[in-house]
């Protein structure tokens, strides 16, 4: 999809020589990672911090050296995709199941840049089911607590078994009606025992790169 490629590649303008770069997960940031690999061949020197096993494999294929996650406590810039972006730049993420590592790395970054094709830009979050990472123990009980917040919930399955994140946890996809106050919802979700993390990335993005109606690149911040 050309729109993904345009916005994904634009994000490399936020990467400077010598940086430690958080590498997101998904089909848009894929183009960022490919472009960074090309720039490394032209002399750019960076270290990557992948947000998933999938991204780690892609970074290695692109020749991007990986930072040792145990040795870093800060990241210069993190670049990632999103499933939805609202008018306040609150994000819904986790469609790719990588939300926990993505959120850890996005929070540790001095700058968090999001790459999103125009279809992701919404007035209010909620058309997309909210991914919530939960521990496998008592998943049905945790599911019920989320349902009681007003969501229709589904435990994510893959090949006939519950999907397992890179961290060995399950994902519950929770369809809430229009999410008018994502900050309050995030607080309520994180109070539920068994919830590890949720896909609401509120007030974290420093900039969102997308396209306007004329298909020109715009940077919302
Ligand atoms: O899981 C995520 O949050 C990913 O960033 C993903 O959902 C982004 O979507 P994309 O594949 O359309 O870029």
UniProtKB/TrEMBL annotation:
It is an enzyme of class 5 (isomerase). GO terms for biological process: D-ribose metabolic process; pentose-phosphate shunt, non-oxidative branch. This is Ribose-5-phosphate isomerase A. The gene is rpiA. Pathway: Carbohydrate degradation; pentose phosphate pathway; D-ribose 5-phosphate from D-ribulose 5-phosphate (non-oxidative stage): step 1/1. GO terms for molecular function: ribose-5-phosphate isomerase activity. It comes from the Bacteria. Homodimer.
């Amino acid at each position: 999809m050309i729109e993904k490629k345009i916005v994904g590649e634009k994000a490399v303008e936020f990467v400077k020589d010598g940086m430690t770069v958080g590498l997101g997960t998904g089909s848009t940031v894929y183009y960022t990672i490919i472009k960074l690999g090309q720039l490394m061949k032209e002399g750019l020197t960076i270290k990557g911090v992948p947000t998933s096993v999938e991204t780690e494999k892609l970074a290695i294929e692109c020749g991007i050296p990986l930072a040792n996650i145990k040795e870093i406590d800060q990241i210069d810039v993190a670049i990632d995709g999103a499933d939805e972006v609202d008018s306040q730049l609150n994000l819904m993420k986790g469609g790719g199941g990588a939300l926990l590592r993505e959120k850890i790395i996005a929070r540790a970054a001095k700058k968090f840049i999001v790459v999103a094709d125009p279809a992701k830009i919404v007035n209010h979050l909620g058309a997309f089911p909210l991914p919530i990472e939960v521990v496998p123990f008592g998943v049905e009980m945790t599911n019920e607590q989320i349902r009681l917040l007003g969501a229709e919930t589904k435990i994510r399955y893959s090949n006939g078994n519950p999907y397992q994140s890179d961290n060995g946890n399950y994902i519950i996809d929770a369809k809430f009606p229009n999410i008018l106050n994502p900050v309050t919802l995030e607080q309520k979700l994180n109070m539920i025992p068994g919830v590890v993390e949720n896909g609401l990335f509120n007030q974290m993005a420093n900039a969102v790169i997308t396209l306007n109606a004329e298909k020109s690149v715009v940077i919302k911040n």
